[in-house]
Write a structure and sequence with these properties.
2 domains; 9 strands; Arc Repressor Mutant, subunit A; DNA-binding; globular; 30% strand; homodimer; alpha+beta; 38% helix; Jelly Rolls; six-stranded antiparallel sheet
Chain lengths: 207, 207
DNA sequence: TTATTATTGTTGCAAATGCAACAGTAATAT
DNA sequence: ATATTACTGTTGCATTTGCAACAATAATAA
């Protein structure tokens, strides 16, 4: 039994607007959805499209900390105490609902029957986010670039063992926290070993 | 304003037992608190002591994914879809409360006034956990072992810029996902650079 | 106490990695 | 249509890293 099925998420979206204070907004490619700021505590919920959580340190190195898709949540609440700059950037057309944190923790004025269900769904969405973070940590725990690439590809390939690079190899290198040139080099080696077949931005995983 | 202060956590612990079905248990050093198992969905809350989330892959390599302390939560819900083995191991004497997941998502029988407040506190504890995971991802995003060490030390030093190795250098190497011998080598280099001073298991951060 | 096991500290070496640089191509803006 | 910018693919090279091995010390068990 999946805890977060389509029906429940649909209900969640419906209830949200009738209970808590929400704002919906559409972003286009590479727009800034939110930058870390401690001022307004809010939770974002992606109803359509994709986005990246990007970190830039003071030397200017950017890394992609996470990638988000439909039904994922994010929040500036998750990025406190960091010395670097955190941005959330849309990747193509992306629709986001913003939920005010204080609306969640306080019962809504109308004492509506939806509030409890909303909090529980958010709770499960948080657990889902937590799970995805653990997958990222597991990816980064791999010792070599080869291991990282294979883990990444297996995680994302479709039922035909195909992975298509929809972003760029540059972005994948940033996501894996490895040097881009080295990513290309290792991809070639892995192909020579017969573990993958690659044609430009289409990769078939054979192992 | 901190969302999770002592008063609120105390209240949380009190309410828990009167509302949902909880079990409390004490573990001693290096005992298995929980292993990943999809059978029973439960959330653990550490009321005393420390623990580690440890992963072992099929080659037998173990890595420390996270370290947990008092007032941290963990759950097998966070580790689904993993092909490796995940364990939570106590680090010294550790007291844990286990909360049944279904008790949380269903309103309790008595429809008690505490349930809502418990869910909201768990919600904030989840956010806190999320934040800690992001810190770990940030740590792992560092390119070199030197950067990892310095980030790790600065994160954990006390007000006097002192960090004491309470576990072992082996454990730290596993936490940073780097080779132990290389950790020692880099520590020496960093000391020669004048960034730290080290005497056995006490490190003073100078930079 | 003594034996056994785990951790620390060190080194040589091979392999992996990041950096810099550059040409070629693709995508985007003017 | 052309100019400009971004991405791909590749390579040489210096540096970083992990691995293996070993002695010394510390911690734990018998």
């Amino acid at each position: 039994m999946k805890t977060l099925d389509e029906t429940r998420l649909l209900q969640f979206k419906k209830n949200l607007s009738s209970c808590v204070n929400v704002k919906s907004k559409v972003f286009y490619n590479k727009e800034l959805i939110i930058s870390y700021s401690p001022i307004k505590k809010k939770i974002g919920f992606i109803t359509k499209g994709k986005a990246n959580i990007v970190k830039t340190d003071k030397e200017g190195n950017t890394t992609i900390m996470r990638d988000l898709k439909e039904n994922d949540i994010f929040s500036n609440l998750f990025f406190q105490n960091t010395e670097d700059e955190i941005y959330i950037i849309s990747n193509g057309e992306t629709k986001v609902i913003f939920i005010d944190y204080y609306n969640i923790i306080k019962n809504c004025n109308q004492n509506c029957p939806f509030h409890n269900s909303i909090v529980l769904t958010l709770f499960d969405l948080l657990i889902e986010d937590n799970k995805q973070q653990n997958e990222k940590i597991e990816l980064l725990s791999k010792r070599t670039v080869e291991e990282k690439i294979l883990f990444f590809l297996k995680q994302r390939m479709n039922k035909n063992n195909i992975f298509k690079v929809t972003t760029s190899y540059k972005a994948i290198a940033e996501y894996l926290f490895v040097d881009r040139a080295n990513l290309m080099r290792e991809l070639k080696k892995i192909e020579e070993k017969g573990l993958i077949e690659r044609y430009e931005k289409t990769i078939k995983i054979l192992s």
